[in-house]
Amino acid sequence: MSVNKVTILILLSLLASMACQKSNPVVEFQTSKGAILVELDVKNAPITAGNFLALLEEGYYDGASFYRSVRGASENNPVHITVVQGGVQHLKSARRVEQIEHESTDITGLTHSNGALSMARSAPGTASTEFFFCMGDNPELDFGGKRNKDGQGFAVFGKMLEGEQ
Questions:
Q1: Which of the four, 26, 98, 108, 150, has the lowest number of CB atoms within 10 Å?
Q2: Model's pTM, two decimal places?
């Protein structure tokens, strides 16, 4: 997926199976490049997935976009990753949202595998609205990985079911 500020519309799709509470909710990202279906893991990452769902339900992500891609290492960080980041950071109308507790991958058991949906953050406990998809496996983003100096990794809370990977 090329990222030139691809505008997205995220729709909350509570599938029939969700009605009987036996599966995780599935959300649909409508982009100018096509739809992306994502399953949110409310069982293993209840804080992060719950925060994302609450923001969806209140329409917070209206006007969101994919605005950044990282392919490889950077000047500031020599650890190679491949991700596409999205959210509302670019919107002047976006209100500030409370930061949430960090659910590291050693707690949730989830990993930054191909198609994983995770929260962006600067330090543990600073995630709020910005998210990213893993394009390929990115183990350096997991707990103990070397992408963050603190070693806490990022909080995975979902996975891509359908869409461009």
A1: 98
A2: 0.85
